[in-house]
Amino acid sequence: MNTSKTITNCRKVGGDYFRLINVKSSDKYLKDFINDFNFDDYWCFKTTDKQRLINEKDFLDFKYAGYTLFKKELYDVDKILEWIDWCKMIGGRVHKYLSKPTPPFNPKKVKIKK
Fold first, then answer.
1. At 87, is the secondary structure helix, strand, or coil?
2. Rg of the chain's alpha carbons, rounded to an integer?
3. Terminal alpha carbon distance of the chain
4. pLDDT for 55-78, tens place per residue?
């Protein structure tokens, strides 16, 4: 487990979804949050412009700037991946990454007008 990076949370850890991000001004570490949730109950995505599903080992290494976790029993990973692909397709003009649950409709129905 990475103990060198200071981390803060966005939303309540262990809730339906939350983010853990590396913030230099924080006084907390991953060890301060790890007992508040069961990793196996969540889909974990690295929170960067190349967002992808992360396994527990990569999460514990905390190599990236942050991670967004979605409760498996509430969120369909295929829908999340569909929205991530859509964000990549539009080139990050609207969103660089997902940090919240996706809307309940297909992203292909979104029309961006210039």
1. helix
2. 15
3. 46
4. 999 999 998 889 999 999 998 898
